[in-house]
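Quick review question:
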């Protein structure tokens, strides 16, 4: 997958993109990331990407031309992109969306700053508007990293064991179950016996029950009939 991030601050993204799973995804060739500074597509001598808002008010607004020219240049060079605009008024980003984005060959993420984008760039190009939550950050760089990382760990061959992605929170079964490692006893707290007994049928049943309980307790909005049915099954089996 080719993923281009349009940003005014490429240097802020570079270190994180080289770290851990994102670095591995690129080293394995599953992901190619290009950081593109859309200031390079300005035509005036001040290289201005923003200007005061028509109608008055605080802050500055991103001008449409540099972003439009930057996207045009990238699409002429690489072909069409699935274009994502990072914006608080977008559709909240979810795991199922990350799963759908993995199918794309080329993704472009556009990071805003200041008061955001001139509305006409939103109208002129076809964007998939994404928000990473109901809060406002100063720029789209952290949202771009969130989306990039969520996608990268789903690309085939990137995670050492692909089962880890399949059993995590927000996949088919709501939230993840609790995890434990050594030591077996820590500050008087013992690892549940079932996890050390080696009976994988019982372990799977215990984990399924914990997933269901945790989902019902913390995120009842994620529950559906299937989850409630599983809870009843677990209770019937006495796990
Ligand atoms: C200060 S924000 C602009 C906020 C905008 N005036 C509003 O109230 O919706 C600047 C940029 O940060 C990014 N941003 C901030 N919060 C975000 C969020 N929750 N999700 C996605 N992008 C966000 C967007 O790219 C946005 O254009």
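Suggested answer, residue by residue:
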């Amino acid at each position: 997958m080719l993923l281009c991030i349009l940003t005014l601050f490429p240097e802020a993204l570079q270190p994180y993109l080289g770290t851990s799973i994102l670095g591995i995804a690129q080293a394995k060739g599953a992901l190619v990331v290009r950081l593109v500074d859309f200031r390079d597509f300005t035509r005036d001598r001040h290289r201005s990407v923003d200007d005061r808002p028509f109608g008055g008010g605080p802050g500055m607004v991103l001008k449409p031309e540099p972003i439009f020219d930057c996207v045009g240049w990238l699409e002429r060079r690489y072909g069409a992109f699935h274009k994502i605009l990072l914006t608080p008024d977008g559709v909240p980003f979810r795991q199922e969306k990350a799963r759908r984005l993995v199918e794309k060959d080329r993704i472009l993420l556009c990071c805003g700053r200041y008061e955001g984008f001139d509305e006409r760039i939103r109208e002129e190009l076809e964007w998939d508007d994404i928000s990473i939550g109901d809060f406002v950050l100063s720029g789209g760089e952290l949202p771009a990293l969130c989306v990039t990382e969520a996608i990268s760990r789903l690309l085939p061959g990137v995670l050492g064991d692909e089962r880890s992605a399949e059993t995590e929170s927000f996949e088919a079964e709501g939230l993840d179950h609790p995890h434990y490692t050594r030591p077996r006893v820590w500050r008087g707290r013992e690892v549940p016996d079932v996890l050390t007994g080696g009976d994988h049928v019982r372990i799977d049943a215990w984990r399924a029950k914990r997933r269901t309980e945790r989902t019902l307790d913390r995120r009842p909005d994620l529950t559906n009939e299937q989850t409630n049915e599983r809870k009843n099954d677990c209770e019937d089996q006495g796990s």
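Why it works: The chain is about 40% helix and 15% strand. The chain has two domains: 2-152, 168-237.
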